[in-house]
Structure formats: structure tokens, C-alpha cells
């Protein structure tokens, strides 16, 4: 499973960080990004990333 954050949609609520702090972080400008090395989500974190995706108010998280 792969995950990306659409910077054109992200508004920096950090709900993604709440649900999957291992995978998402807030950058210096206040927007979310996927941590280096987590673009391919480890199996044990996939459920957390799915919750983050489902709870992003801006639909900025894409998983495939
Ligand atoms: S919850 Fe969505 S909009 Fe908010 S910081 Fe995370 S990716 Fe961005």
C-alpha cells in the first residue's frame, strides 16, 4: 500500500498525525507530509493510515 498527501488540498489540521504519527508529520509550513521511507506503508501501519485517510476533512490523503 502506498500513501501520498495532496499539498493542494491539505489544510494542516494534523488529524492524520493523530491517527498515524509514525507515517505523517507536519512540515515547517504547517502542512502534512509523509515521512521519508513511509511512502510504502508497512503492513502493521496500514490500518492507522486508512483511518487517517478516512478522517482527513480535505480528502488530501490518497492511498493505493
Ligand atoms: S488531516 Fe488531511 S488536511 Fe489535515 S493535515 Fe492531515 S492530510 Fe492535511
How many strands appear in the DSSP assignment?
4
Distance between the termini: 6 Å
- Classify the fold: give the CATH topology: Alpha-Beta Plaits
Q: What would you call the structural class?
A: alpha+beta
So what's the overall shape? globular
Q: Which small molecules are bound? A: iron/sulfur cluster
CATH architectural group: 2-Layer Sandwich
How much of the sequence is in beta strands?
15-25%
What is the CATH C-level name?
Answer: Alpha Beta
Topology readout:
Elements: E1 3-5, H1 15-19, E2 24-26, E3 32-34, H2 46-55, E4 61-63
Antiparallel strand pairs: 1-4, 2-3
The chain binds iron/sulfur cluster (SF4).
Iron/sulfur cluster binds next to helix 1.
Question: What would your notes on this structure say?
Answer:
It is built from two helices and four strands; from the N terminus they run E-H-E-E-H-E. The protein is of the alpha+beta class. It has a single domain, classed as Alpha-Beta Plaits (2-Layer Sandwich), CATH 3.30.70.20. Strands 1-4 form a two-stranded antiparallel ribbon. The protein has a two-stranded antiparallel sheet with strand order 2-3. A hairpin with a 5-residue loop joins strand 2 and strand 3. The chain starts with a strand and ends with a strand. Bound molecules: iron/sulfur cluster (SF4). This is Putative ferredoxin. Keywords: Electron transport, Iron, Iron-sulfur, Metal-binding, Transport. It comes from Pseudomonas sp. KIE171. GO terms for molecular function: iron-sulfur cluster binding; metal ion binding.
